[in-house]
Design goal:
single chain; 333 residues; alpha/beta; Rossmann fold; two-stranded parallel sheet; 13 strands; globular
Length: 333
């Protein structure tokens, strides 16, 4: 029998890649989208799946719309990818971040408990919950949490409330603790895409400088297309559990810059990068490196795209995208 999935945050990077994966597996996919005069389906269009999704209007801050969405979709699986997902903005909008990333999850869980208690629920947790708790080695599922931003704190609340509903009500609830994952459709507010878009514009003569914060920060970067597969695998397992999804490797922002500028054949990236204090966090997070051994052992999952391939993929896509923008502008003249 054909399965049905409801995906919140379907317009985002992960939502688009997950929708593509589920459709390839013959799911009927419902996407929860916020009401807007100009809703953006760019990411879904980029992956060629926008027309195959059934859209339902709703918002994680509005409990009535969540109940209506679940009542309409009657999903077998619910993937909660909706969030105020930019760490930097959580310092400026901590209350909004908590309303969406923490309380929105409670509203979803309540609706599932009342309407579709046998549905399986996936919560997008984050490596940001670890903060600087284990600088000396890999973070595992047993590493203590030490969140360093309003975003991470809200996500940690969601992580624990998901565990609580699983244990209290016997619901199938899984947390995916995903480390940084990128792609050609990553938002430009994130440092990786800011770099690759900037590199493309520098190569094509549209700008000269990329303004960044701490170049020494280390992250465990993987490919979003690989990581959504891990989400799906968690939901197919016999028992619900929490898993880290990562590559186990770390690279600095300097490493990312080196590869991105080299791919674009631009020498000496230091001539094109300026340090701007505005992009440094109030509480800096220095290193995140996760062990995905549990996911490898229990789910048989492992990342396929290497760091170098990821950077090259993103640079190539942005050069192609900006080249097309230039052509479109010229054609309008």
């Amino acid at each position: 029998m054909r399965k049905t999935a409801l995906v919140t945050g379907i317009n985002g990077q992960d939502g688009a890649y997950l929708a593509k994966l589920l459709l390839e597996k013959d799911y009927r996919v419902f996407g929860l989208v916020r009401r807007s005069t100009r809703p953006s389906f760019h990411n879904l269009e980029y992956l060629g799946v926008a027309s195959a999704v059934d859209y339902i209007e709703g918002d994680l801050t509005d409990e009535v719309s969540i109940f209506q969405a679940i009542r309409l979709a009657r999903p077998d699986e619910i993937y909660n990818l909706a969030a105020q997902s930019f760490v930097g903005s959580s310092w400026d909008q901590p209350i909004l971040t908590a309303e969406i990333n923490a309380m929105g999850v409670v509203k979803l869980l309540n609706a599932i408990k009342e309407l579709t208690p046998h549905a399986r629920f996936y919560q997008a947790s984050t490596s940001e919950m670890f903060g600087n708790s284990n600088r000396a080695g890999l973070q595992t599922e047993n590493t203590p949490f030490h969140p360093r931003s309003p975003y991470a704190i809200a996500k940690l609340f969601a992580y624990w409330i998901v565990n609580n509903y699983k244990e209290s009500y016997g619901m199938f609830c899984a947390n995916g603790i995903l480390f940084n994952h990128e792609s050609p459709i990553r938002g430009k507010e994130f440092v990786t895409r800011k770099i690759t878009d900037g590199v493309a514009r520098i190569k094509l003569g549209l700008q000269d400088t990329i303004r960044l914060g701490n170049l020494e920060s280390k992250r465990d970067w993987g490919f979003a297309g690989d990581y959504v597969e891990a989400m799906w695998m968690m939901m197919q397992h016999a028992t619900p559990d929490n898993y880290i999804v990562s590559t186990g490797e770390t690279h600095t922002i300097r490493d990312f810059l080196d590869l991105a500028f080299r791919r674009a054949e631009i020498k000496n990236w230091k001539d094109h990068v300026a340090i701007d204090p505005r992009f440094k966090r109030p509480a800096e997070l220095f290193t995140l490196q996760g062990s995905c051994s549990k996911a490898a052992r229990k789910l048989k999952w492992k990342p396929r795209v290497k760091f170098e391939e990821l950077v090259e993929m993103m640079v190539d896509a942005d050069i192609e995208r900006v080249t097309q923008e230039i052509k479109n502008t010229a054609n309008k003249r």
